[in-house]
Design goal:
It comes from Halobacillus salinarum. The structure is a single chain. With about 230 residues, this protein is an alpha/beta fold. The two termini are about 25 Å apart. The protein is globular, with a radius of gyration of 18 Å. The chain is built from eight helices and eleven strands. The chain has two domains: about 120 residues, 3-Layer(aba) Sandwich (Rossmann fold), CATH 3.40.50; about 100 residues, Orthogonal Bundle (Arc Repressor Mutant, subunit A).
């Protein structure tokens, strides 16, 4: 199935491009590359990728402008931005322009792959049937999550939160990241809402010992699969 998924990789650092292209092709993706922004926009028109991995700091037009142009041209791809910057303003700017996720350099290939798969399943659910992750079975077309073969009764927000955590299992998710992806970057409420919903999910999963959804002190939450 991955051979059907097209990835456009945009970065001006040859060693990063070579490393990621080799890894992604070994995972079965069809990959095209660009080393600067205008080439990326041109390639995207013909290639029509499902996902764009886009560096922010590039010569000529930067990744923010490339993202804006891609979205303006109607590209339906998910956009994951690579950046050495960990500033909130940059994250908000990218999300406002249509980016779907951020990966901060340096990063592991496994983390990027997990985020890619999460974005693909979210944006192109019809390419996926039921997907099994340990004791979880996720069917986004039916908007159902089964745990140990039992359908969980979830509110829409609980569903989105648990789906986000399952698709990013093993990755520490900060409250800010969760708010961006589940509630939206324009959410003006308190971060404590995340704690309330995590507590509700733990109750429904009978996770009294926090063995599934772990609290990483000072960092956020991580869903671990048995």
């Amino acid at each position: 199935m991955k051979s059907e998924i097209k990835v456009l990789l945009v970065d001006d650092e040859p060693h990063i491009v070579q490393f990621l292209q080799l890894g992604l092709e070994n995972e079965g993706f069809e990959v095209k590359t660009a080393s600067e922004g205008m080439s990326a926009v041109t390639i995207a028109k013909d290639f029509q990728p499902h996902i764009v991995i886009l560096d922010i700091m590039m010569p000529g037009i930067d990744g923010f402008e490339v993202c804006r142009m891609l979205k303006k041209n109607g590209l339906q791809a998910s956009v994951i931005m690579l950046t050495a910057k960990d500033e909130v303003d940059d994250r908000v700017k990218g999300l406002t322009l249509g980016a779907d996720d951020y990966v901060i350099k340096p990063f592991s290939f496994e983390e990027l792959l997990a985020r890619m798969n999460a974005r693909l399943r979210n944006q192109f659910p019809n390419m996926f049937g039921e997907v099994v992750y340990g004791p979880f079975k996720l069917d986004d077309r039916r908007r159902e999550i089964l745990f140990q073969n039992q359908v969980l009764v979830l509110s829409p927000t609980e569903y989105e939160l648990l789906k986000y955590m399952i698709l990013n299992h093993g990755i520490v998710l900060s409250k800010g990241m969760i708010l961006d992806k589940v509630w939206g970057y324009s959410f003006q409420g308190e971060e404590n809402i995340v704690e309330v919903y995590v507590r509700a999910l733990r109750d429904k999963l009978k996770d009294k010992e926090h063995q599934l959804i772990r609290t990483i002190r000072g960092s956020g939450y991580r869903l671990d699969l048995p």
